[in-house]
Each structure stands twice: as C-alpha cells, then as structure tokens.
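QA checklist item 7 of 12: single-chain prediction sanity check.
[x] sequence parsed
[x] length recorded as 363
[x] structure emitted
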Amino acid sequence: MAKWIKLSNRGCDNLLLLVVVLLVVSSHGVLSLQDKKCDSDYCLGCESSVPCVDATRLAKDVRKLPDEGELSGPSLDQPHRIAFLFISGGPVPFETLWRRFFALQNKNRYSLYVYVGSSDYTFPSDSLFFNSEVRSHSAPGNVGLAFRWTLAVALLDQNRRNTWFVNVCGASVPLRSFNQTYDYLTSSRHSFVQSFSPIRGFRFWDTQPQFDQSEIRKGEIWMALRRKHATIIVKDRETFIKFASNAREPEHVFEDEYLQTLLNLRDPSGITNRTVMFADYSNTGVLPRVFHTGDSYNMQQFLHEMVTMTVDTTYGLQHLIAVDNRPVPCELNGNPGVVCFLFGRVFHENSLPMLIGLQIPNI
C-alpha cells in the first residue's frame, strides 16, 4: 500500500512524496524502470535487505560513464551546459523569478529538471518547467536521495549534454543574472560543496573498514557540481552501502553527510568548503530562517548583504557544528574577494511580490 511521508529538507517545506515501487522519468523520455530487490551495482535508497528500487537500466548506463565524467564527441566544442535540478515535489513557487532569470537565454546553455516524486502534478504547457518533471514512485522522502536520483537522470540525458549540476531548493531564488551565474560556475575548477569536519557528537557510528570516523564530513545539500563529481556520486556503491547499512538516522545522513563525505574521500582538493546557496542560521538554530513578507527586518538591506558578501560569516550552518567554525573567505580558483552566493533560501511563497518589487534576481 502506498504511504505518504514528509520529505526531509532543511528548509524546503511542504514537500510530500508518495512512495510506491515504479520510477518513470517523464521529462525527456529518458528511462522507464521497474522494481526489484537491491542486488545490482546501482541501488538507490536501500537499507540492508529492505526492498527498494533497483534501476536495472539506469545501473547499466551509469556503469558506462567515464570515471572522470568527460563528454566525448562534438559536445566538447559546445558551450558548458548547466543542469538545474529543482527538488520541489510539485510546483516551483518562485517560477516567476526563475522565468526572469532564464529569459532570452540560449537554451543550449541550461537544462531544467524538476523532481516531483510520485505527485501527479504536471506543469502546464505555458510553464517554464513544462516537460521537465522527473517522477519517482520509489525513492525515499529524502532530499539527498532524490537529488542523487535526479542527478543520474541529468547525467545520462543524451539530448542535453550537461557539464554542471546545481541542486536547487524549491524555496530558493536566484540572486544574480543568468550570465553572471553561468560565468561564475563554468569558470571554476572546483565544485561548490560545503564539506566540513563536524564536532565529535556527529561522529558516532562504525565507519570501518571503508574510512575512519575522522573523515566524516557534513554540509548543506545545496551544491553545484562539475560533471566529474556528479559522476563520482552516481557511480558510487561502496560508500553508499556503508552509509545505508551502518549509519544511524540514515534519513539525515543522506542529506548532510553522505555526499559531503564521499566527495571529501574521493577528491578533497576538487571541492570548495562552501556552498553558493545562502541561508541564515544566525537566530534559528539547526534550521534556517524563513523569510516572510511583513517581517520586521529590512529585506532590501538583507538582500544587499546576500549579494555583496565576500566572506561566509556566522550566518551559515558551519558555525553551529564544525570543528573549525571560523568564517570562510570566498575564493574562485584560489582568488579571494569574490562574492559568495548565487542563490538564496528559504523564502516563503508570500514573499514573491516583494521580491519582484526588489528586482530579484538582479539582472
């Protein structure tokens, strides 16, 4: 029998996913997958012998990906293409702002994927996100696993040869123009992944023999990945199974530990210890502030701070639970003084008129 569960999301609220046992990617006719036991090289969301989705065809195609994730053929002569992966579970509340963000852009420079889970929701034909739905009737209600699944779909999409992958919260908004965002990401030699060593209280399960407890990392799930690191994530089996089988509270570790630890183990020099998605943890503890219309602070001033910040100060998650919680200067290819953030969250739907009035994104 189908079961409703809430999608754990650290600030992307109101996402309910129906978990059953069939995955269909509707967006580009990429895949049609069937339910099996977890007995192949690619299994998403399984824990021990619990039945889960085994994407046989997806597994076969993922194994064929080059380890470094290079694209071959004519695509090397084409511009970078950024895949935006919206983990929303349904409509994208700030579509108006995203439409402004993508307006008049060359569609060969971006791709859109919206993870709607088992929802029957279909974007109307006049929507920016028409035909971009990724439907999953089997992946658990967890942002990390939903992201991993959607990432595999975007990597294997032969019609859209994606080279960068941005995980976007449904409650997030773009802060800059598409061109600024595009140039910032595609000029980087590193993926933007917050991956820090947490205080000892977050390292309490048996990680041996795969890795030492001291190598556990935590961070925001909202990351921007080069194709190389996206490929590492979808091809990984060993670390995934270790987390699924041994970690306590797996519904949380797949969101803020698994990917961060995996990339730190496999290519620590290839990732930054920061995210390009702003969130304000200064007064709210382990969950970020939700920005509403009518709140007492000056939103225009706060947005200005988001856009101009060049040091990730104590607003972020890292200052709460990291061993080293000093502010992180924002660098691009080793050059300091660059702006930190391209996107911001968490915004309530009622803030849309205000954001439109404040000319967000800043085009």
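[x] summary fact logged: Residues 1-11, 13-54 have pLDDT under 50 and may be disordered.
[ ] second reviewer sign-off
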